[in-house]
Amino acid sequence: NLGKTYFELKQYPKALDYFEKAKIEIEKHRVDFVRGKNLNNIGKTYSALGNSTKGLTFLQQAKAIALQNQDNEALRDIYFAMQKGFAQTNQFKAAFEHLEKYSILKDSAFSSEKNKTIQELNTKYETEKKDSEIKSLAQQKQISELESGRKTAIIYTILAFLLIGSILAYALFMRFKTQKQNELLTTQLEEAQRRI
């Protein structure tokens, strides 16, 4: 917006000219949000030109629109401009009241920003905490799977040794039995030969 640019450059007559032209276009479309911003800009420009009374008239209109739309950000800016205008016209009580309203909205905005930041940080903390818990659980699961695999391997190894031991014991028992039978047969054969 050229009006704002000229206002920031302190070329107030040019700024006012662009704001007034914008006002005609905005009135055609009846967009309250834009209308309120433009009236605020016109009011601040008249005050900057030294015509605070006329500036306050436009600021009052902007204030009514901001209140209707519950636009606290715009209200904060309007209250600040109005307290300057009232101070310039020696209406110090009104200036003080608008300065208080400005301060309340400024503090409210700061407080809500602070609460929003706290909520965002809390959400981030909770998310990181849950991610950490998930990683920890995954690691515990992996460890338990490894331990389970190790236990299974140990059980199979023990079973294999038991099987091999059983086979060896059976083979030794059979060998011992065969040996005893052979000895018995040898003894019986020797006895039978002695009897003959």
Count of runs of 4 or more consecutive helical residues = 6
Radius of gyration: 49 Å
Instruction: List SSEs in N-to-C order.
Output: HHHHHH
Taken as a percent bin, the fraction of beta residues is: under 5%
Look at the helices and sheets and give the structural class.
mainly alpha
| Shape call | rod-shaped
**Roughly how many Å apart are the termini?**
140 Å
What can you see in these coordinates?
The protein has helices at 2-8, 12-29, 32-48, 52-69, 72-88, 92-195. With 196 residues, it is mainly alpha-helical. Helix 1 runs antiparallel to helix 2 (12-29) and helix 3 runs parallel beside helix 5. The longest helix has 104 residues, at 92-195. The model has no long low-confidence stretch (mean pLDDT 87).
What would you say about this model in short?
The chain is mainly alpha-helical and 196 residues long. The protein has helices at 2-8, 12-29, 32-48, 52-69, 72-88, 92-195.
Task: Write out key terms for the chains shown.
196 residues; 0% strand
Give the topology.
Elements: H1 2-8, H2 12-29, H3 32-48, H4 52-69, H5 72-88, H6 92-195
Helix pairs in contact: 1-2, 2-3, 3-4, 3-5, 4-5, 5-6
